[in-house]
Write a structure and sequence with these properties.
By secondary structure, this protein is α/β, with parallel strands linked by helices. Helices cover 29% and strands 25% of the residues. It has an eight-stranded mixed sheet. A hairpin with a 4-residue loop joins strand 1 and strand 2. The radius of gyration is 21 Å and the shape is globular.
Length: 325
């Protein structure tokens, strides 16, 4: 047990390495460092947005935090309880409080089950409430996410992408969770539908006092729902700050490049576009020192030999860059 805090979740020095097998004997010849010594905390009731390019380790981090993937190392605390080493039977009661909304609603919904069965499934697994109460709960949740009671008898293929994601949200909320990982929940939707789903999630958060870890690769998406933002690069945090601080004063060169790519209608204050050279390095063979140095326009000699750690830049703004040492 840790000292009591208002954090609903804390991740300390999390690592997730996937082994690379090679040779006839399939021996481990290396590791993909999807998450590499990362720490963060989330306050009850807030939304922490995590952004970064594909391959930066965002989704892996979300799954490790929920113990859907086993961490290679590190500690995870949920409501001050260390859940890092809990067995499946010990984790089962906690599953009610921690849920996930996946990126692809069609892939995450069983096409052989109707909507009512999909929403009731967590209740069947985790509770012993009667069938009538389960049906009422399913209807209530459907109406809460903007669908009709009659929709409960339909199947996933009968809905649009946005409607399917609403069903996924209803299913995630069926057990009245406290913490929800949103793994790029709007990236596969049209822009107009994205706004509707984001507004729905914000309304549900306020109504149900939810805490979100919101994963996205688009900074313009997380801007409207997040309280704080964390920028990931190659399995590590490059920067973390309150939303306003990060958008108005990005410190890390990687964050500056990401923000410069966000379309803007403000002609006078439009950021100068920063084009990063090269591709994201392989997490199986990351660069020495700072992982971003091979693409950074401001890299210098120290970046090649020493990995920067997160340092306090004031007002809750943290950055991992030698420029601010």
């Amino acid at each position: 047990m840790t000292q009591k805090t208002d954090h609903i979740l804390e991740a300390r020095n999390i690592k997730k390495y996937f082994p690379i097998k090679g040779g006839i004997m399939k021996r481990t010849v290396g590791h993909i460092k999807a998450v590499d010594d990362l720490s963060l905390s989330i306050v009850k009731g807030e939304t922490l947005g995590i952004v970064g390019e594909s391959g930066s380790g965002k989704s892996t981090l979300g799954r490790v935090i929920l113990r859907l993937l086993e961490p290679t190392d590190g500690r995870i605390y949920f409501e001050n309880e260390d859940i890092s080493k809990l067995k499946n039977r010990q984790l089962r009661p906690l599953r009610r409080d921690m849920q996930i909304v996946f990126q692809d609603p069609y892939a995450s919904l069983n096409p052989k089950m109707n909507v009512q069965e999909l929403i009731e499934e967590p209740l069947l697994v985790q509770t012993s409430i009667k069938k009538r109460i389960r049906e009422e709960k399913a209807i209530s949740l459907l109406e809460k996410v903007g669908l009709r009671a009659d929709d409960r008898l339909k199947y996933p293929h009968e809905f649009s992408g946005g409607q399917r994601q609403r069903i996924s949200i209803a299913r995630a909320l069926s057990l009245n969770p406290k913490f929800v990982v949103c793994d790029e929940p709007v990236s596969s939707l049209d822009v107009s539908i994205q706004a509707q789903v984001l507004n729905l999630m914000a309304d549900l958060q306020e109504e149900l006092n939810l805490t979100y870890l919101f994963i996205a690769h688009d900074l313009s998406v997380v801007k409207h729902i997040s309280d704080r933002l964390a920028v990931m690069y190659l399995g590590r945090l490059a920067e973390i700050a309150p939303k306003k601080n990060l958008y108005e004063n990005p410190l890390h060169p990687y964050t500056q490049a990401l923000l410069s790519s966000v379309p803007s209608t403000d002609v006078l204050n439009r950021r100068q576009k920063i084009i990063l050279k090269g591709d994201l390095p392989s997490p199986a063979n990351p660069p020495s020192g700072c992982g971003f140095r091979t693409r950074c326009p401001k890299a210098h000699d120290r970046c090649a030999v020493e990995r920067p750690e997160l340092m306090d830049a004031g007002e809750g703004h943290m950055v991992a860059c030698h420029l601010y040492a």
